[in-house]
Design brief:
Keywords: Acyltransferase, Amino-acid biosynthesis, Arginine biosynthesis, Autocatalytic cleavage, Cytoplasm, Multifunctional enzyme, Transferase. Heterotetramer of two alpha and two beta chains. Belongs to the ArgJ family. The chain has eleven helices and 15 strands. With 407 residues, it is of the alpha+beta class. The strands form two sheets. Strands 1, 2, 3, 4, 5, 6, 7, 8 and 9 form a nine-stranded mixed beta sheet that branches. It has a six-stranded mixed beta sheet with strand order 13-12-11-14-10-15.
């Protein structure tokens, strides 16, 4: 497996474009297009929030129908959530406009929206953006990057990655882009992720590989505990690598799954580390668990604790907050067996052993916790299972951003 340059245009046959349609933002791009020269098998995972945005309902219907797709249209600034029949109608109009501009089947057009909830899309501006992108799309890595930038809202940087693997004598590439900074607590992930591949792969294998992998990637991140109305991950495969078809649970499937995991984990960690107002990526590893589920519950509880996140923001080794978060997680463990350490590029330091503080240097702990990437490792000494969750520190910046988000 090799990391290669680019994002959604790295795989064969995929093109991208962006446009500044003025949907909400001014002076920047706010629409993106992903286009495939050949129709794609699709897979998707979506928010578990009962309040689902119109694009989520639309995309889920497209994915479940089995119809092939050639285009994804995404806008930022307005989420098209809580917009009723009118909002869902705009999904239909978007698909129809894409059909006209790109020559693709409207029933297979996928859509994505992110931004303010409750506002209706300015559909005429959106249609103008589609026409502009249809004229400017190409397969360059630069266009892939511009698409990744166009879908940002409060993100401070764009997020993209691509990897290649060998399947038989063919090179298969997977590329992806994502956005997410606030309202991040996926359960399926406002986060959006779009992944392209030129692999020949069965529809069953494509959906299985995505559904299984999000449990250890996007569903293990949290910024603020809010599960969005728009959380969506879409995976498109156009088959242009011309490899032998990848089927579920084969050796080739496992190889593809490993590559997809790298893409998803990279994007998930970038989302977590770019949390609104954040200054650090906070990684939590729970080891020595008796079951994977126990480890996941404990890790997620720690990474979601506001008191723990503020301690990380203050570079304070307040380990009691971590043990407390483990205690109310719902997972059973013996607190008098827990070892806890902090780690970063500044070093590693053990804070507690068997549930009690050890003699450690507060100055060294502060140095370790002052780095842009910080990890907490909790060993509960019950077994061999482990899990990792990712989040960020909680700062005044989060309030500053969200107190006036609509304006």
């Amino acid at each position: 497996m090799v990391i290669v340059k680019g994002g959604v245009t790295a795989a064969k046959g995929f093109e991208a474009a962006s446009a500044g349609a003025g949907i909400k933002y001014q002076g920047r791009t706010d629409m993106a297009l992903i286009y495939s020269k050949k129709p794609c098998r699709t897979a998707g995972t979506f928010t578990t929030n009962v309040v689902k945005a119109a694009p989520v309902k639309w995309d889920r219907s497209v994915v479940e129908s089995g119809v092939k797709s050639q285009a994804v249209i995404i806008n930022s600034g307005i989420a098209n959530a809580c917009t009723g029949e009118e909002g869902y109608g705009y999904c239909k109009e978007t698909a129809a406009a894409a059909e006209k501009a790109l020559g693709v089947e409207a029933e297979g057009v996928l859509v994505g929206s992110t931004g303010v909830i409750g506002m209706q899309l300015p559909i005429d501006k959106l249609k103008n953006g589609i026409r502009e992108m249809a004229e400017n799309k190409n397969a360059s890595l630069e266009n892939g990057t511009s698409a990744a930038k166009a879908i940002m809202t409060t993100d401070t940087f764009h997020k993209e990655i691509a990897v290649s693997i060998q399947v038989g004598d063919k090179t298969v590439t997977i590329g992806g882009m994502a956005k997410g900074s606030g309202m991040i607590h996926p359960n399926m992930c406002t986060m959006l992720s779009f992944i392209t591949t030129d692999a020949v792969i069965s529809k069953k294998a494509l959906q299985k590989v995505l559904s299984e992998d999000i449990e250890d990637t996007y569903n293990m991140i949290s910024v603020d505990g809010d599960t969005s109305t728009n959380d969506t991950v879409l995976l498109l495969a156009n088959g242009m690598a011309e490899n032998e078809k990848i089927k579920y649970k084969t050796k080739e499937y496992e190889k593809f799954a490993e590559a997809l995991h790298l893409v998803n984990e990279y994007l998930a960690k970038k989302i977590a580390g770019d949390g609104e107002g954040a200054t650090a990526l906070f990684e939590v590893k729970v080891i020595g668990a008796s079951t994977k589920r126990q480890a996941k519950i404990l890790a997620k509880s720690i990474v979601c604790s506001n008191l723990t996140k503020t301690a990380i923001a203050g570079h304070d080794a307040n380990w009691g907050r971590i043990l407390c978060a483990m205690g109310y997680s719902g997972a059973q463990f013996d607190p008098e067996k827990v070892d806890l350490s902090f780690e970063s590029k500044a070093g590693k330091i053990q804070i507690i052993e068997n549930g009690r503080a050890v003699n450690y240097s507060e100055e060294k702990a502060t140095e370790i916790l002052s780095q842009p990437e910080v990890a907490a490792i909790a060993d509960i000494k019950e077994g061999t299972e482990s899990a990792t969750a990712w989040g960020c520190d909680l700062t005044h910046g989060y309030i500053d951003i969200n107190a006036d988000y609509r304006s």
